[in-house]
Amino acid sequence: MNTAAGGTESGRLRGRDPILERIPATRNLAYRARYLVNAYPALYMPIGRFRHRHSSDYCVGPGTEIVIEGFGRAGSTFAWLAFMSAQDRPVRTAHHTHAAAQVITAVRLGKPTLVIVRPPTDATLAHMARKGITARMALVAWTRFHRRILPHAEGFVVCSFGEMTTNFGPVVERVNQRFGTDFGVFEHSPEHEQEIFDQIRERNRRRFGDQPSGDSSKALGLPSAEREALKETFRSQLAAPDLEELRNRAQRTYDALVTPSQVPGPG
């Protein structure tokens, strides 16, 4: 990525939107560094294990029973909470690193692993809306994450974002079939879905407190009017002709990971 062009593009966006004006210019650089390091186990895993040394449910280890991961904004919070709500005993999970390195390490260790894959356009728009980054940077990060795990695909179960949000039960059944486990299966009903949404809101209140209106930097992992409005302002940037090759590469990667049987049909 041309950093000068990226900086100019980011500056134009910040100038147009009062929310993005509050995002430091260093946010782009930090985002880029994070998703570069996260792609490589030798770099990320020592850092992740040190960072989360006081918690047993982030990085995969010998005692991990299942890994639930995805690129950021893929819905892994819903998947994790839905999975845990269906268990009749504590299950040690590793989750929420949003690191390709975690998926690769889990596969190498032979751990049951579930990866949520959200379509690249939707995922990158969500990252742009929350992080205030450029379309190019978000597309590059999405593609790097998924291309890094693609060679290890036989070692994990893929769940499309659409399936996760509409019919998550069969996903856990696939995990059980693939790994010979007997995890409880989530019953995806409107009532149970609402319970998970309530848990997400409570989890975010505990982590971040009540956020002031307009603060998108620590937004809930749920749809919001503010975030949807931001996405609309970014669609034209994502559709820019000079990003066509990146968009196509990301889509090819998505198609290679998510089979037609994992994408819900109409109705």
Q: How does this structure look, described?
A:
The chain has 267 residues and is of the alpha/beta class. The protein has a single domain, classed as Rossmann fold (3-Layer(aba) Sandwich). It is built from 13 helices and four strands. A four-stranded parallel β-sheet has the order 2-1-3-4, with helices on both faces. Helix 5 (76-85) links the parallel strand 1 and strand 2 (93-95). Helix 5 (76-85) crosses helix 11 (190-208). The longest helix is centred in the last third of the chain and has 19 residues, at 190-208. The protein is globular. The relative contact order is 0.15. Mean pLDDT is 84; it is low at 1-23 and 212-220.
Task: Compile the SSE list and pairings.
Blueprint: H1 3-16, H2 18-21, H3 26-37, H4 41-51, E1 66-70, H5 76-85, E2 93-95, H6 100-109, E3 113-117, H7 120-131, H8 135-149, E4 157-160, H9 161-166, H10 169-179, H11 190-208, H12 225-238, H13 244-257
Parallel strand pairs: 1-2, 1-3, 3-4
Provide a brief overview of the structure:
By secondary structure, this protein is α/β, with parallel strands linked by helices. It has a single domain, classed as Rossmann fold. 57% of the residues lie in helices and 6% in strands.
